Amino acid sequence: LLQPAVSVGNVGQLAIDLVISTLKMTKVGYFYTDCLVPMVGNNPYATTKANSMDLSINAEVYALPSKKLVVLQIRSPFIKNKYRPFCQTLLSWVESSKCDRVVLLSSSHAYQRDDEQLLGTPLRYLLTPDLEKAVGGLMQELNWKEMEKVAAYPGINDTEKVLHIPGGGITKLLFTESCSKGIQMAVLLKFCSEGDNIPDAFALANYLNEWLKLIKSRVNTAAQWKIPSSWRLLFGSGVPPALF
User: Fold this and answer.
1) Does the reported pTM lie above 0.85?
2) Amino acid 96: pLDDT
3) CB distance 63 to 3 below 8 Å
4) What does R_g of the chain's alpha carbons equal in angstroms?
5) Which family does the similarity line name (predicted)?
6) Distance between CA 201 and CA 216 in Å, rounded?
7) What pLDDT score does 151 carry?
8) How far apart are CA 157 and CA 155, in angstroms?
9) Longest C-alpha distance within the chain, in Å?
């Protein structure tokens, strides 16, 4: 199962858009929950005028049996105090559906990094203990950096370290709950800031592709992702030429 966290810059959701659009995944259902703000809109992955009128809602499920891949796309923010009920419902679904692994795409505020997190790549990963046993060695081979823990009380007690993901939405809660339930979960995240987060989405999607090999990469290692039709108006329509 591949899914986004509703986090800073919506980077995880945008990266999921790239995966669904590129792999031409089929919508197989909805994830019904009262934890998300209700919404409805046109098909974000329209390829023809006919299917552009299909409706989409706040949480939908897509599948690609050939790659044993299921994707949950989330398109609206969480209702206040609904994080924990959502996590409980989601993980119950994961267990009942017998998902082998869960991969959560997320992001975190770049301006809240500590000194150690400022070094090297802005991409990080986390693995639950059960998944660490299976793929921990591969992450080392890929030379990936694990998300660092930070001081619980900076400047007062620097020895006590905690996991801190500011701007990460449900990321920390979902990860810690998966650890306690023995669910194999990986978190892939990018430090970023709010703005035009399309480059961050491409970076996170490429990061995911390094591991799962969902699509072939070019010689320069940049994967060939297909931009969904909904992105044309992501930052509004263009300026009319008559105004220049």
Assistant:
1) yes
2) 95
3) no
4) 18
5) Belongs to the PSMG2 family.
6) 17
7) 79
8) 6
9) 62
Nearest to 189 by CA among 139, 234, 145: 145
CA angle 102, 11, 97 (to 5 degrees): 20
> Which distant-in-sequence residues (6+ apart) come within 8 Å of 71 by Cβ?
1, 2, 3, 16, 19, 20, 25, 61, 62, 63, 64
Residues 6+ apart with CB under 8 A from 168: 5, 7, 8, 106, 107, 108, 189
User: If we measure between CA atoms, which residue out of 119, 222, 107 comes closest to residue 166?
Assistant: 107
Query: Measuring CA to CA, how many Å separate 69 from each of 3, 21, 27, 81, 102?
Result: 11, 14, 12, 30, 10
Give residue 220's pLDDT: 53
pLDDT of residue 28: 96
- Average pLDDT per consecutive 10 residues, the chain (244 residues; last block may be shorter): 96 97 96 94 90 92 96 95 95 94 97 88 96 92 92 73 93 96 96 94 96 81 82 73 69
Domains of the chain: residue spans and CATH: 2-231 (3.40.50.10900)
Q: Write the Ramachandran bin of 221: left for phi over 0, alpha for psi from -120 to 50, otherwise beta.
A: left
Distance between alpha carbon 244 and the CA centroid of its chain, in Å?
38
Task: Give every CB contact of residue 102 below 8 A, 6+ residues apart in sequence.
Answer: 1, 2, 3, 94, 178, 183, 184, 185, 186
What pLDDT is stored for residue 219 in this prediction?
56
